[in-house]
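Need tokens for this chain, all 367 residues.
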Amino acid sequence: MSKKRIYWICQIGGWSALMFYELLYYALEEELTIGNFFFAIANILVCVLLTHFYRLIVKEQNWVSLPLYRLVPRVIFSGLLLGLIMTLMNYPIDIHALKDVFNSQPFIFFGDWLSWSKSMFMWVLSYTIYHYVENMRATEIEKILLKTSVNETEAKVLRSQLNPHFVFNALNSIRALISENPAKAQQGVTQLSNILRNSLLADRRKTVELREELKTVEDYLSLEKVRYEERLTADFHIDPKTLYLQIPPMMLQTLVENAIKHGVQKAVNGGFIQVTSFLENNHVHIHIRNTGTLIKKDNDLEKHKEASGFGLENTERRLHLLYGEDSAGFRIFQESENVVRAEVIIPIQTEGVFRSIPQTKNAAKSI
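Here are the structure tokens for all 367 residues:
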């Protein structure tokens, strides 16, 4: 049933019930005449017209969007004015007869005015409160939708920033091999094409399965190992139960890339990268350990972000947009003298993610 139909049913039904109740009460006290009946019908029509007119004013002037200190006086005044009109409608039209009523029984008029104002005020208050609450709800929904739209747009921008950033670094790695070892450079181009294919597919989704992200990371590390050779070692310790859980696309690859650029690359004798995943308290934990040293100032993450480019800040912002600041977490710190560790915590939100996987304690592999 539409709101408009409900409105008219409540209007006609409500005023009819009130008037016929008054008519029944009058019939029990005095003799009921056909004139009283038609007079009650007239009152019903006038009450419907007056309150409908009030409704049109409220909608036209958009009263429900006003602050309470401006809305309340309007509601009180409207109830008193509508009550006064109904009182005058029920008194003689003759001005002399009206003066006689005021002279002989002045308080009866004010009593009738108060009675009609009470009925009108109940209608006005009910209608205004209902639409005031509806307006507040609609405003809150609009704010939520706007915030969601802004967050979604920002998340898309953050995802789109990853591809050119990654391609630039990968092409630099291949360029260094072209003159030294063309065969390895050709192999690197093949690996890069595989990575780009995966990243382009991932860019269309908010999240991807961890196993897909790990495949991209493995290809990337294989590409980097062509350049670093024995100076780079990498191994994975992945809990099989986490393979099909959802994580933001290219997030893990960005952290691994950051670990190489600001850790392994700066180490004289090269270094290592270790990726670990496990489940704890209904969250998937991903740890990236690598050779390196944070900027020395109480392991200040903000200072390290400035030196590491947009990668770390991008990761933290994406996690907050997707899962909220209280549900997901990210931190990077100096684990030991020459080892840095980045930790990502993501809530498990997808049901039925555990598939038929080998029942092994950990899936460990090295590159």
